[in-house]
Amino acid sequence: MSNLLEVKNLRLEFYTRRGVYKVLNDVKLSLKRGEVLGLAGESGSGKSTLGLAIIGLVAENAIIVSGEVLFDGHGNLIKSAIWSDSKFKIKKGRKLIKQLHKQLLHIRGKEMSMVFQDPMSSLNPLLKIGYQIAEVVYYHNPKLLAQRALARSKVTKQEMREIIDLLKTSEESNLVSYLSQKGLDGLYEQIMSIWQRTNLSEVKRERMLLSLANGGISALEKLVLEGVIKERKIFDLPIVRRYKKKILVKEGVRKAVELLSQLGVPHPEKVVEMYPHELSGGMRQRVVIAIALANNPKLVIMDEPTSALDVTIQAQVLELVKRLKNFGSSIIFISHDLSVLAEVADRIAIMYAGSIVEVGETEQIINSPKHPYTVALLAAVPTLSDKEIKGIEGETPDLRNPPSGCAFHPRCPFAMEICRLKKPELTVLDGNREVACFLFGGKK
Ligand SMILES: Nc1ncnc2c1ncn2[C@@H]1O[C@H](COP(=O)(O)OP(=O)(O)O)[C@@H](O)[C@H]1O
Ligand code: SF4
Ligand SMILES: [Mg+2]
User: In this protein, which residues make up the domain named ABC transporter (predicted)?
Assistant: First the structure.
């Protein structure tokens, strides 16, 4: 199957008063559909910058010097800008970054989303949790909300019984075609969120499913919901818009309850009525993950999502990330901690000074690292190292003036003459593993 995401030769620089920082240096990376890719490296290696560049949230003082970000048939999301005169670079670069932000508005939050380290920074302290989850669906996918409410008002008890029979005896695809024939597509996620609650007895789940058929709505509500589906302009007029938003957000809160319950949040009906400060750190991070997942994005980028949490809560969130695969999203999980990635990732990419230096299956990276930097990084992880723990010797490079050739050469115990002169390229080593080091080919 084709890759969901491909980053090709991405180079990004930050312009500051102290100089130009070359933060991404020819990044090459691909992400398969449905996989969790871990991204590791010391602090300052460019992990967050890469995550933000993929989702198009690039700081205004950045220049994308070259490269492509290819995402799920959208073509290149980034247009690079190369100028010889640095004054022009900043000005034109800013214009391009603004264009980029605008272009990606309809993709961000819908097809790709991001979870940051501090959940409080992503939540509005003044709004209820349910509203905050509902609003992202309202903004990107109002039709889905209208379809959900209309489908409940349309479906009969008899049809619900037939649906329950299908769930018990047949493939999911048969349910999908049944719903589509009857024009009840809006019921699909509501049905599945109940049916997948295997902690409830079958009798209870059946009762909950049957109660979906009680969704009577007023004639006015029906008119508005149908108008949303048909994209009638009249419902964008200020006087009707407020009413439209009210009924769609109410439906969004219903979806929020389903999402939180799927994410293992106890008492989701109560949680949607709460404000962020009333929740624990772990619970807040689940809410942020729920917001990131609300529109079933194809890609979720998680930047150190567990670093601000204490250990037991961290374990809960990691369990949750493992379960996220059931939502059909691919995940880039950024962490400076390889022991965290060992738990959740299918593959791991190691970043050093803005380049990927090794990438492979998690098992390959953890049990038989090849690149000297990966070896050093692993030796510095207390829980993964059976030997004495060693910090990585030497300083992280100054990205204004990075070392020539292999950026790791000043710290590498195996450095050779060629390492100072040329930059090694990622080269396939064994199976799916690629390494950028002259000890292992590193061509050129
Ligand atoms: N907007 C910015 N302007 C200038 N430098 C920045 C900016 N954002 C990040 N940097 C620098 O880029 C480097 C990489 O940062 P970052 O991507 O946050 O690394 P990581 O997430 O791996 O810790 C750091 O040296 C950081 O100081
Ligand atoms: S290319 Fe050379 S300096 Fe770089 S990691 Fe390999 S051996 Fe060390
Ligand atoms: Mg970071």
Answer: 5-378
